[in-house]
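Slide 14.
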Amino acid sequence: QVQLVESGGGLVQAGGSLRLSCAASGIIFSVYTMGWYRQAPGKQRELVAGITSGGMTNYADSAKGRFTISRDNIQNTVYLQMNSLKPEDTAVYYCNARLFSDTYWGQGTQVTVSS
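Slide 15: predicted structure.
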């Protein structure tokens, strides 16, 4: 059974930082492309950052320079370090694991940034 369990969300003031974690089980973590997505109320889910099995990263324009995605293939965990947070970063953040046609989602963690 595949599980992706996010943690680290919460309430933070604008300019603050949060570190999200996503612990994976039930998959061969090291071969999966991992991603962080977010969905704000009334908006579509959007990619925030991704990291391939080889460690290549990509970011949404809104995340570049402020967020960093990383992975630990020993701990089977992917991280999203978020700095200089803005109120518009407020959303539910979801972890995603993808390999060819297989895709899995976590349950999401709420991030709220107050102004």
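Speaker note: The chain has a mean pLDDT of 97.
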